Amino acid sequence: MKYIDEFRDGDVARKIGERLRTEADPARQYSFMEFCGGHTHAISRYGVRELLPPNVRMIHGPGCPVCVLPIGRVDMAIKLALERGAIVCTYGDTMRVPASDNLSLTRAKARGGDIRMVYSATDALTVARDNPGREVVFFAIGFETTTPPTALAILRAQREGLANFSVLCCHVLTPSAITHILESPEVRRYGTVPIDGFVGPAHVSIVIGSGPYEHFAEEYRKPVVIAGFEPLDVMQAILMLVRQVNEGRAHVENEFSRAVDRDGNLGAQQKVSEVFELRPTFEWRGLGEVPYSALKIRPAFAQFDAERRFGLGYTPVADNKACECGAILRGVKQPTDCKIFGTVCTPENPVGSCMVSSEGACAAHYAYGRFKDIPVKVSA
Amino acid sequence: MNARDDSKGGTVRAGYVRPLDIRHGRIDMGHGAGGRAAAQLIEEIFLVAFDNPWLRQGNDGAAFAIPAGQRMVMATDAHVISPLFFPGGDIGALSVHGTVNDVAMMGATPLYLAASFILEEGFPLADLKRIVQSMAAAAREAGVPVITGDTKVVEQGKGDGVFISTTGVGVVPHGIDVSGANARPGDVILLSGTVGDHGVAVLSQRESLEFETTITSDTAALHTLVAAMLAASPAIRVLRDPTRGGLATTLNEIAGQSGVGMLLDEAAIPVKPEVDAACELLGLDPLYVANEGKLVAIVPAEQADAVLAAMRAHPRGVDAARIGVVQEDAHHFVQMNTRFGGRRVVDWLSGEQLPRIC
Questions:
Q1: What is the pLDDT of residue A216?
Q2: What CATH number is attached to the domain comprising B325?
Q3: Which residues of A touch B358 (CB under 8 A)?
């Protein structure tokens, strides 16, 4: 594939790997967090960790949209489908997120809920147009990448006077999550996670630009390198982070300059602020309540807000006690530190959200990396 | 069988039966009631297409001779697919290929097929005829006749147009022992061609996706390929067609059955650029996408070249490749050296393959 294979070239990867081994100071440890699930996926799928020197450690961040979706929010969507008879449309990997009563959207569908997987918010609009007699709710999740399409869907529904369409808005914001991690109690109290820098989001940054990260670099003295989702992007960003750390710098640098600039997509930002406003607080799975970290639909669009339309209240539900997803999302623990990883909690029966999406830290490690934890005898 | 002799009506010819209105007709509950309508449906749609001496006897089963002293193989496969017609095939051809291949993957020569149809009330007769004709053409091409069958009708909303279940029997030549439990460390893993074609061709036609592509399903009968391979080396240990769950799932099944691990070379696994691009777009991994005309063979290392040459000489195996080796592994992991230079586990598919959101 043109414009993609170039960023998956094994020879270039080996060269960057050599540079990393030359430049990384063997006397110190480097810990970088890749915020996005897309980066986690690339690292796992292409075996990037194998190409890094042993003293460069990658920590999987909370940037997997389905992983941070709290149980209570999935419960709301299930309730709409099973009790209110609505058609609930959502993105693919949201279907398997564990909810209360051992349910998930997939299982609610098996119990008769009309739950449909869509590839875009526009597809949900089509479902609404095709089913004028039914309530159609788009269960909208994701970071800044998926927010503008939801805004557009609402604007279009308003223009068309689509009376049976609404959105259960669960859109969250990247910068507030990063701040939360940097200020998380464990990080401050125990200093357990000396995060030396961040591989910054790819697609999110196309929308919001590189500007919003300048604050972390300055205030917390942490370098941020925005990187694309291809494996070479990730390796190059890690090399740039190592260099910044070595030189004692903490700047925002942009490896993904083929798509990201400082200001981002102003048109998209304008649509988002037209339709959405900040929520004073929002629960993230694993992180708990995070202030000003999510969006809700403005009162002017109240008729498209499923929470208002159906009078839905939010009931928080505690995660399984043994599940370490919270600590894993904050970078305090690794999947293998969790007692139930790979035994009770597997991709077939996910207990915690990190096991649900292939982007989740636990699922990615289970699928792509676990042979490293278990000695493998090779005969040849 | 429905011949009427209407001696009073002067305008009706003796033996005349008004034919089915294939163009406008639809399946109704009467077609499944076992009466005259059912008999007519069988006569005009199924018998005409599958025509062979066994079916013409009109029994509820078929009797046939088998070569003395050989082991028999029986395999069955239920076919449900949406959409029913897709680029490169349809449920009819698929239902023949699927079962012929299941028999062939035991190292057997497929001989006969049985087919049962579950039809949904309201299903257009024209579509049924098209499917049955395609099925008959596939059976003829494979040289494996459908010698007995059954039809049932379910009420509207209780089926998805048509479900087809086929059962095949075959015989295993002397000296052949093919089983998923036979892989040994040191064996070589061969693949007959590109992966993911069928799954992507079907996805491209789904109502919610509909993207334009030139990819067609690879649906095909593989028994002549298997015969050519076994002629090159009767020592072939494992044969399997990586259908649902794709190559990754098939290899994990075999690793578990044989109690071994595997190490694959990503760069050696053939994937069409169009399939690769579609998977990239949809957030899928071609290793987990279904195939209907490909096989995996595991052979002793010293036989690998001969078998690979036989595969490449056959029209269904021109893109055949050596994709990895079997190794000892207490955990039965299938691992892969990535093109990028790293290594990963190629795990079982969990649940349905769902597209990633980011």
A1: 83
A2: 3.90.650.10
A3: 36-38, 41, 63-65, 142-143, 145, 203, 229, 359
